[in-house]
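Chain A, query sequence.
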Amino acid sequence: MRLINGIRVLLAGIAMSGWMAALAASATAQDAPDTQALWGRLAQGGHAALMRHAIAPGTGDPDNFVMEDCNTQRNLSSEGREQARTIGEAFRQHNVGVSAVYSSQWCRALDTARLLELGEVEPLPALNSFFRQREREAEQTQALEQRLLEIAAGETWVLVTHQVNITALTGVFPRSGEIVVVRPDATTGSLIVVGRLMPAD
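Chain A, predicted structure.
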């Protein structure tokens, strides 16, 4: 009898655990921003798409890196170039009118921004990678935040930059081509991370 009761308690515990796990998963799904809703927010304006450059194999840059010479840099692969085109097409499919396109001065970022074909690309030093110059992190992050706080209600900006820059500003570690949607909060004078759009979205 004790054995039977013990089994009943065990089964009840398993069932409860399964139910709680399902409930937690449901809550997580409900809390997660909907992909279509994120595209909708970009389309309505007052938001920015902070994007990591498309696929460029490797990490950092070669020791002989020269900003003005793409041959000395890590560059987009053919897959990365196609990824950038696909992301640009996603903006058009979701009817997102882009007011401005800014980019890091690194070739892989500029190439990504241009391949999006969302408008004229303006290089912005605050978006430059500080992967090898960590002493620049605080200054550049503050400059980028101040620039993003200038987004007007009807505007949508696209900013192509690097993982370190996005992580420093938002706490998000993005994949290649991933977009972090942000908006300024006039009440607090700070940026709010609205959600993330994965490259496949």
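Confidence is low (pLDDT under 50) at residues 1-32. The domain at 35-57+73-197 is CATH 3.40.50.1240 (Rossmann fold).
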